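Ticket #197: bound-state structure for zinc ion.
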Amino acid sequence: MQCTSCNTGHLKPSTLDTTLTCQTCSNCGGNWIKLEDYIEWLKTQTPQQAVVDEIGVEVDTVESAQALLCPETGAIMTKFRITSDTDHKIDWCNKSSSMWLDKGEWQLLKNKGVADKLNQIFSSEYQQEIIEQTTRNSREMMMINKIGEENYSRLKLVRTWLHEQSDENKALMVSFLVMRDPFMDKATDKIMDKKPD
Ligand SMILES: [Zn+2]
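RESOLUTION: The complex was predicted; output attached.
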């Protein structure tokens, strides 16, 4: 079968981790995996702990940005993000129940601790979580760019500390922080005079 990713190589029977049956491209090194083979492999695995951000693991990967066609059915495969901290995506074909991993992506899945959780990756809840996490990360980066890394880390400490206080004290402390003259401000008076229920 011809490789639909590089359109040059051929898919040859092969294995990942010696037991996961797949077909590997002779040119780009991508792997085509049938769901049934993945499930067989999964049965032999003990659940992994998710170890996101494993330090010091460099993986030689490529990522095909363009839409990929299933080598078997010719249908356009759907892309699923792996985690929020990588742009790598797995391509999935619903018709043939098979997936495409670019070169190195299997190792990446293992490093991220999600090689045995592909069924989760294909779920809409998981993909939604990734979108939310990505939004959170990019907003945090905007904040850091705006106020600087040192200010941001101080601010985070203050925030954690504030959230450890009772609601009543928190309001008082926040107003103390932001008011120009806290002890002469009406808003502070209101909080200070508030009688406990
Ligand atoms: Zn190829």
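RESOLUTION NOTES: The chain has a mean pLDDT of 86.
TICKET STATUS: resolved
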